[in-house]
Design brief:
- The protein contains three helices and no strands.
Length: 89
């Protein structure tokens, strides 16, 4: 997969993570999108580095999607913990 594919995957993974973890995000749509893209890269790196499951170069590989969505969920949870209460409700 090329760089653009990872960005598209990250955008979709961020949207899926937002659906799986609904609620008010401090960063809004743009923040969630950035978290999705960074989460896709992070999830892929973690999968290849520590889980001994290298990410395939196929956009439609289930492990690639699972790593991207998992990374996005983890980053979204961490982001909410760190910055969730900094905004007035």
């Amino acid at each position: 997969m090329n760089f653009i594919s990872w960005i598209v995957l990250g955008l979709l993974a961020g949207a899926i993570a937002k659906i799986l973890l609904p609620g008010r995000d401090p960063g809004g749509l743009i923040g969630t999108t950035v978290i999705g893209v960074v989460g896709a890269f992070t999830g892929g790196w973690i999968s290849a580095r520590w889980l001994d499951r290298p990410i395939a170069n196929d956009f439609y590989d289930g492990a690639t999607w699972a790593a991207a969505i998992g990374g996005s969920l983890v980053l979204l949870i961490v982001y909410r913990i760190l910055f969730g209460h900094s905004r007035s409700r």
